[in-house]
Amino acid sequence: MPEKEYPFIDFSRESYSAEEMIEKSNSFFEWADERRSVRDFSDKPVPKEVMENILMTGSTAPSGAHKQPWTFCLISNASLKSKLRTLAEEEEKKSYGGRMSDEWLEDLAPIGTDWEKEFIDIAPWIVIVMKRPYEIQEDGSKRQNYYVSESVGLASGFLLMAVHNAGLVALTHTPSPMNFIAKALERPENERPFLLIPVGYPSDDARVPDLTRKTTDEVIAYYD
Ligand SMILES: Cc1cc2nc3c(=O)[nH]c(=O)nc-3n(C[C@H](O)[C@H](O)[C@H](O)COP(=O)(O)O)c2cc1C
Question: What total number of domains does the chain contain?
Fold first, then answer.
């Protein structure tokens, strides 16, 4: 294979002193630690351009073989949001009413969730993250994507941080099973719903569970 068949471009970036790195990484951590999943939304509008920037930030995530196996459905249409809410609540009623194990319900108790998903109607934007296990080529044949869930999970994480950066809030919601979403949105056969993410401002009386996050010793295994 000729060496130059696939072009490479020069790459470098600004680096920092150890002190600067410590300061930057610590302040970034403290800022990231302020992010919370919010379930009480305001209906205050958020410009579409902000949402596009947030979604394009999600799309900068690394992905297996650079396939970027995601589609972000950006929904503001009130009747579509209402339809999604109704369908999500139908599934969630079944889940909370017996489909989830006692252990699962016990683990959810501190979060205070139930089958009601009012936020789908109220938040100005609903993002549906779709994953694409394969692409359909022009001749109709399928071409595989790689590490699809890992890639789409990373894109969703980047997206959530972009929401936080914009001074907005989001919820990572999984109204399970989520097949109803692909149907309601008439998505192509190579897409599967991955997450439903309402985005907007918190309501004036928003509250979040008083959770603590794991400590350094709990999440890092050192091999010095
Ligand atoms: C994959 C995934 C699925 C989740 N599904 C739901 C959900 O269906 N409903 C909900 O209210 N929260 C859901 N959450 C949010 C978690 O409850 C939340 O992230 C966790 O309680 C920690 O709170 P924090 O995001 O404020 O740090 C989900 C989070 C993840 C990562």
Answer: 1
